[in-house]
Model the fold of this input.
Amino acid sequence: MDLQLKKLVDLTKEKIGLHSYGLHTANIYSHKNIFNGTDYTLSMEWFPEHITERTEDGLNPTGTAVVDLDLRSRRLKSIIFVGGKAGATTLAFDKHDSHDIIHWIEKETGLTYHHQFQIKKEEETKMLFQSCLHGIPVSPPGHIEIQLDDTGKLLSFSIFGDFPSNDPVEKVNYTLTLDSDIKQVAYEQWKLFEFPSKKQEKWLPIYAMEELYVSNDKKTTIPFEVMVDRRSYLKIEKMMEWDTPIHEKFEERPLNVTNDCVTSDQAFSFMPHPDTLPLTKHDQEMAIAGVLAFLRKEFPNDTANWMLISLHRDKRYIIAELKQIENIRVPQRKLKVFIDSMHYEAVNYFDNQLFLKMFEQYTASDVVTTSKEDAFEKIQSKLELTPVYVYDFEQKRYILCGKLDCQYGVLATSGDVIELDEV
Done:
């Protein structure tokens, strides 16, 4: 075993107390993070010392410790004891003392409580934390989960998502209120959608608001879906149009998705992941041409019916995200097209139409009788504006914003105010 790798294995053994365990596997994986950087993870499987093989069905035996360690920071990313049986000797806590657990999290993650993470939910043997900045939630969010057994031994730990660094961030006074300016922004986000009602087996026309972040100085707005889905994706927003279809069947090929397992030499050199390469102007033009050729074959009659939203690299492919134009139904029809990054040809695609088929027997919406203005008038008192620190990918820093949202909608056929969760 590589000397650097052995040091991390030994570090893990001491840190968790795996003295009665034997290392079964140790592999290093790389992947692109949302900031277009490269993360390297050492993934280990430790078997109880009296066990040397997996079970007959190929699964890890009960008591196995599956541990992930960040290679760069040497900090724990996750620990799972298979079957809920913990054999580690050092990771035991007073389950009635959250400060004991918080102190361990601070020590192992380097994060500071109340400044970078805070409790979101607490149960008798389980705790969930979320990322924050000066006690205010952040977006994109990060989470930490801890689960103990009845005696206080650690059963699982995981940290995922993103947390602000420990670098000083100027504390800003949150000044946003639901004044006329913010209500105007909310009105612009107030739109008519069609939601499927399982109870009635029909589509319901409902006015609802798309979530949005508004900067504390009111100069910037950030769509919620950008933080959830697209973040570092290259924004395109191009309508796909053509005059003639291609009378040739699209030949779908299996995806060659690698697990990105790398050698010790590759990992400790911290080379950038191939998916972090920028999409050049040439890449963009050729990928768009590849998407267009795909649509002309697979959806020959759909000219001007699809919008190319974004491009990004993933699993060594160029991924094109598309959505159907002028479709107000929720969920919306979407495509994800995989483009060969060498030849710029579409090789495969995912279509959520299969999921949407469950609604194809639903009856169409009734006639809309309520105007947007009247519906918004009824909802204004239920608007929510809460402080959130949002990571600005262009400025590469967190900015204080207000999350503008509403848990209610207005049924466009009757004008009734309804809770969206109940639809």
